[in-house]
Specification:
Blueprint (H helix, E strand, L loop, with lengths): L108 H19 L3 E8 L2 E12 L4 E2 L7 E2 L4 H14 L10 H4 L11 H5 L13 E2 L7 H6 L17 H15 L3 H10 L15 H4 L18 E2 L8 E2 L1 H11 L19 H8 L5 H4 L13 E2 L8 E6 L4 E7 L4 E7 L7 H17 L12 H11 L1 E5 L11 H4 L2 E6 L3 E4 L8 E7 L2 E4 L5 E6 L5 E6 L3 E5 L2 H38 L17 H29 L6 H15 L1 H14 L4 H23 L10
Antiparallel strand pairs: 1-2, 1-11, 2-3, 4-7, 5-6, 8-9, 9-10, 10-11, 12-13, 12-19, 13-14, 14-15, 15-16, 16-17, 17-18, 18-19
Helix pairs in contact: 1-12, 2-6, 2-7, 15-16, 15-19, 16-17, 16-18, 18-19
Keywords: Hydrolase, Membrane, Transmembrane, Transmembrane helix
Pfam families: Beta-lactamase
GO molecular function: hydrolase activity
């Protein structure tokens, strides 16, 4: 599943005593290409990318989100995959090993194998990634399935694309959407009916939410962290996880793309509520088993016969393993699957009947052709999205990832260790799936994934012509200047103390070349330059990404849509200064705290040297009597503010690293912050006292700085909701 980019502390892991070389393995269905072909092998370039995701080794984390919270009461049943007693699935049809050109574009088994051999092994080695699994389908057949590197570094177990399970993260959402569409196909649910009608949860929505909203990531929910991931062995209760502290609805449904793990989990619960069986059981019986995906499951923990085959996950190939990540909302990202099973799923979505168990006749279709087409089409139009409809739009569970002038739909997925992506080229009857089991050095897995997909597109489906620019130069320049500014993702926290994550990860747009716009990297967007090709529609220079901009009546930017389910909103002036104010004020107060013992030490030394009488006047020039009270309270409040800031830092890192945060710790942080805020009036009192006794300009200036420090700290704490009585997140 996609996750929230976040800030985490680095954790100490025991390094492997020996680095095992990465060796690609080739299954029987995909022999090594002959040495007679001499193509130039392009090596995937290693790039460092900003990752807003957790990298803390811990007991949980996996789809897109954040921290573990309340324990559930119901242990998941293990139905998602068939047991050993099931008859084997009908083998997927494979093309001959000879290099027969199937498309005229070079898309052959031999060429794909040669290309993969020339790209993935070197990327695994340089990026310190343990292993990868790939499947490519075309024209109703499994073109190739390949395993590279190791599923278990300690034992040297090689990745087998037909046996080794990878955690596919948010790619699971495409299966969840498929389950919903089966109910739509049968007339059991309607895409435009309030989901409360099906779930009975009676969630506190300001506006009705429909399945269309949920599957297109436009229900309007803010991000929710607590309960998204659970410690190993913790029971999962989907209904409880959805009903307990649901996220606030901060946007009108259908208007604002804002990726939501909670929303997709709610869609999965509709399947559970309407079908009358646990979600994992429904998927197993109605999707996985019919398609012969016998090595795949949403179950947590996996059944024994699959648990023995699941790949280990790693931060890097030379670090200790990461525990099996338990997703608290399974429909959003708990699936484990092999590459060949994902090939079956891709073929089914390309409209090819895929045989399940032997003897089924190979004519299993899990959805009607109409439903398959509906899932790939834009789910919403300009009536609700406005100008964002000119850019990429979500289908029902599928991202629009079109490129090179061709229609492409897909979905990525990330856990702490695993990084996956699935893409379908419906008009070209092609699909590609990739998963790796390590994040790698400097997030090398993300670079590998993106470069592999880009390389596949450019190699086999190259673009014909560049997109013509059809906007007046003067208008382009005006629009570029209007776009310049600071933004944050709509996929974020808005009503909880984690709202400070947005200002921590600002995305800046700057004008380059007079009429182009460069975006800094951030949540869901990479650092690159865009040019306007249609009014308020921007194309990535030398790339395939497209942005669409929604403006107000005065031409001011309201929203920038990107990646179908993501959008950016301008950072308000108050939010822009809140975090700098909080940090700057905290630094001033920290210096105040440090000056307290330092000043006492200096006074002690001076007193000993000049033998100052202590009963005449304090050595620091402060007035005697009641004025000592504001001075003491100011110093204590500064100490509380600094302690509160340190506690909040721990809470932030733990929550975004998906470690459980005790309620007592959050309340302690709030109490210390509140005591720090109370220092503001006492610091003003103290400053007035210093002024009245004419203690000198330097001392007065220091007192004024302390007042400003408290003021900035107070503003930041209030604006960033650090004092909110609601501590859900």
């Amino acid at each position: 599943m996609e996750r929230v980019r976040e800030i985490r502390p680095e954790t100490v892991r025991t390094p492997m005593t020996q680095e095992v070389p990465v060796v690609p393995t080739t299954p029987a269905t995909s022999p090594e290409p002959t040495s007679g072909r001499s193509r130039t092998r392009r090596r995937i370039r290693h790039r460092t990318r900003h990752v807003d995701r957790r990298s803390t080794r811990r007991t949980h984390r996996s789809t897109g989100g954040v921290v573990a919270a309340a324990a559930g009461a119901l242990v998941l049943t293990t139905l998602g995959a068939c047991g050993p007693a099931e008859p084997p699935p009908t083998p997927l049809p494979s093309p001959p090993a000879v290099a027969t050109d199937l498309t005229g574009s070079g898309l052959t088994r031999a060429d794909v194998d040669a290309w993969l051999d020339g790209t993935i092994p070197s990327a695994l080695e340089s990026g310190r990634i343990a292993g990868a699994s790939v499947a490519v389908v075309h024209d109703g057949e499994l073109l190739t399935a390949r395993g590279f590197g190791e599923a278990d570094v300690s034992t040297g177990t090689a990745v087998d694309p037909a046996r080794t399970l990878f955690r596919v993260g948010s790619v699971s959402k495409t299966v969840t959407a498929t389950a919903v569409m089966q109910l739509v196909d049968r007339g059991e649910v309607d895409l435009d009916t309030d989901v409360d009608h099906y779930t009975g949860l009676d969630l506190p929505h300001d506006h009705p939410v429909t399945l269309r909203h949920l599957l297109s990531h436009t229900p309007g929910y803010e991000e929710r962290a607590a309960g998204l991931f659970l410690p190993p062995g913790q029971a999962v209760d989907l209904r409880r996880s959805l009903a307990q502290d649901p996220p606030a609805q901060v946007y009108e449904p259908g208007t604002t793309p804002a990726y939501s793990n909670y929303g997709m989990a709610l869609a999965g619960y509709v399947v559970e509520a309407v079908s009358g069986m646990p979600f994992e059981d429904y998927v197993g019986q109605n999707i996985l088993t019919p398609l012969g995906m016998t090595s795949s499951s949403f179950a947590q923990p996996l059944p024994d016969h699959l648990a023995q085959e699941v790949s280990q996950g790693y931060p890097t190939s030379d670090e200790a393993t990461i525990d099996f990540e338990v997703v608290g909302v399974p429909p959003a990202g708990s699936m484990s699957a092999t590459a060949t099973d994902m090939a079956r799923f891709m073929l089914a979505h390309l409209g090819h009947p895929v045989g399940g168990s032997a003897g089924t006749g190979g004519d299993t279709a899990i959805l009607s052709d109409e439903a398959l087409q509906l899932m790939r089409e834009p789910a919403l139009d300009a009536a609700s999205l406005g100008a964002l409809a000119s850019g990429p739009r979500m289908g029902l569970g599928w991202f629009d990832e079109s490129r090179n002038g061709r229609a492409v739909v897909g979905h990525g997925g990330d856990t702490l260790a695993f990084h996956s992506h699935l893409q379908l080229w419906p008009d070209d009857d092609t699909g590609v799936f990739l998963s790796v089991n390590s994040t790698g050095a400097d997030a090398a897995a993300l670079a590998l994934r993106e470069d592999l997909l880009d390389g596949f597109a450019d190699r086999y489906f190259p673009a014909d012509d560049a997109t013509p620019v059809a906007v007046d130069p003067a208008a382009r320049a005006d629009h570029a200047r209007a776009l310049a500014g600071t933004y944050e993702s709509t996929r974020g926290f808005h009503t909880t103390f984690l709202t400070l994550v947005g200002p921590l990860q600002p995305i800046r747009a700057t004008v380059v070349d007079g009429d182009r716009v460069r975006f800094s990297p951030g949540v869901g967007i990479r650092s690159t330059v865009y040019e306007e090709v249609e009014p308020w529609v921007y194309q990535e220079v030398d790339g395939h990404r497209v942005l669409a901009v929604r403006t107000d009546d005065d031409g001011g930017v309201q929203l920038i849509g990107h990646d179908s389910a993501m959008s950016l909103t301008p950072v308000t002036p108050a939010r822009a200064v809140a975090l700098p104010g909080l940090v700057g004020g905290g630094v001033v107060l920290l210096l105040t705290v440090l000056a307290w013992p330092a000043g006492a030490l200096v006074r002690l030394v001076r007193a000993r040297r000049v033998r100052v009488r202590r009963d005449v006047r304090p050595a620091d020039g402060a007035p005697v009597g009641p004025a000592r009270v504001p001075r003491l309270v100011t110093r204590l409040a500064a100490l509380a503010a600094v302690s509160g800031s340190a506690t909040w830092a721990y809470v932030l890192v733990a929550a975004l690293g998906m470690d459980p945060v005790p309620t007592a710790v959050i309340r302690t942080a709030q109490t210390l912050t509140a005591l720090g805020v109370l220092g503001l009036p006492f610091s003003v009192w103290w400053t007035i006292a210093v002024f009245r006794v004419r203690s000198g300009r330097l001392r007065l200036a220091a007192a004024v700085m302390v007042v400003l420090g408290f003021a900035a700290f107070t503003f930041g704490a209030v604006e960033l909701l650090l004092l909110s009585p609601d501590i859900s997140y």
